[in-house]
Amino acid sequence: GLHVRGLGARSRYDFVTIGGITEDISLFTKEGKVIDNKKDLLCQKLLAFEYGAKIKIDHFYYSWGGGAANAAVGFAGFGFKTACIVNVGNDERGKKMIENLRERGVDTSLVMKDKKAESSFSFILIQNKERLIFMNRLANEDLVIGKKELTALKKTKYIYITALSGKYWLGNLRRIFSLPKAQIIWNPGHAQLTAGIEVLKPFLKKTAVFGVNKDEALELVMGLDDYRHKGNEFLNKRNNLLKIIKSLGPRLVVITDGKKGASIYDGERFYHGAIVSERKVADMTGVGDAFQSALSVGLERFKGDIKKSLYLAMKNAASVIEKQGAQNGLLTKKDLIIKSVAKYEDERGYLSEIFRRDELDLSPAMGYLSWTKPGIIRGPHEHVYQTDCFIFLGPGEFKLYLWDRRENSKTKGEKIEIIVGASNPSLVTVPAGVVHGYKCVSDCEALSINLPDKLYRGLQKKEEVDEIRWENDPASPYKII
Q1: Fewest CB within a 10 Å sphere: which of 44, 130, 408, 440?
Q2: 181 Ramachandran zone, left/alpha/beta (phi>0; psi -120 to 50)
Q3: Which tens digits make up the pLDDT trace of 85-107?
Q4: pTM of model > 0.85
Q5: Which residues contact 19 (CB under 8 A, 6 or more apart)?
Q6: Computed from CA positions of residues 26, 29, 31, 33, in that sequence, does the dihedral angle turn out positive or negative?
Q7: Gyration radius of the chain's alpha carbons
Q8: What 3-state DSSP class applies to 247?
Q9: How many Å from the N-terminal Cα to the C-terminal Cα in the chain?
């Protein structure tokens, strides 16, 4: 997995993203016609308009985008120290791009200001939830990684590379990949893909996580002599594409496939994530950036647990498309409810960090532990104001139940059931408005610790208990069995 322990003490940044930044002008229409073109593996669907016609636009809006900018906003939202290496023009658009990054918690000290170039923009044509992007890269094409940037990257835990363009992209890649201990997550762009697999091979051997969509994976694999003449049936199977790309050196290979979800291969096992149903689709822009950046967050937060990381990535992708713009629907650290707890073992026993202020947006007011006998149920109940922070390390095991009743929550109405404890050490934050409870499912008593952000019954225990006890309501829809 991606997780690396021990770099934090000398790391200036957790993540630095490298690539493009744009202003997106999104245009919505119903005038186009979708044409099936399955004979061409690399161009299976086309969107056509009548030649010479005037096309009606239903509505439009402006937003901020670009792969490096979108990923940086995503990482910062999850609480990571994040910087962004991009090139903007010395114009009003460039100033607003920088302001947007700052407002969203991204360090802008590595943003380059180009006096000779205009800041980049894109026209995005959206029809029936899908989109075409017309890019004018401008300043993005003049991005050059120099000594200042390389010095910062040497003190960075993870380097996240998105689409690079212009005549300097290959030199930039060579400089980035020359860093001796770099942990590189790579989501290549059009220029890299059209350059071909032979050009990319040296870099793939040094890549921790390599992510592409299925069409891009096909394009790469068909550039290899051994596979270009394979039939469509072979090439259309994601697992075949994953295996072939993995053989070129990346530690993890990720392929996304639209409504069919996403798949990951680590050399030993295939993982598949189905799409997470969204309540509405406002805009598909930025869905790939949302997926890839959240996957990286998960691999770090969940200590390399691919299954949990894949679910977080699918959730983030579903969340971002519910709002217009590539950055407005991204999940943040406040949306992270379940986090794996690592055990660092040696001959003396083990150590686990159960709470870090820099990883969790919570200020505990007290702490307590409880033991639960086999078969006993606690809850379900709910708090109006209090957020709980449960730690389940073992001994013993619980089946934990969570139901989200929060009105403005991105996960309203969802239910989670998960085994926590000795076999799955976990930290679980339970915000106010989330019904929760658990049952001891082990043969021995099970231990839980809670670090809530409110005092039980308030100062000096003089206030009412903040609890809605659903277990006392025979008609309750929240059942633990």
Answers
A1: 408
A2: alpha
A3: 999 999 999 999 999 999 989 99
A4: no
A5: 66, 67, 68, 71, 85, 86, 140, 143, 161, 162, 163, 164, 189
A6: positive
A7: 24
A8: coil
A9: 35
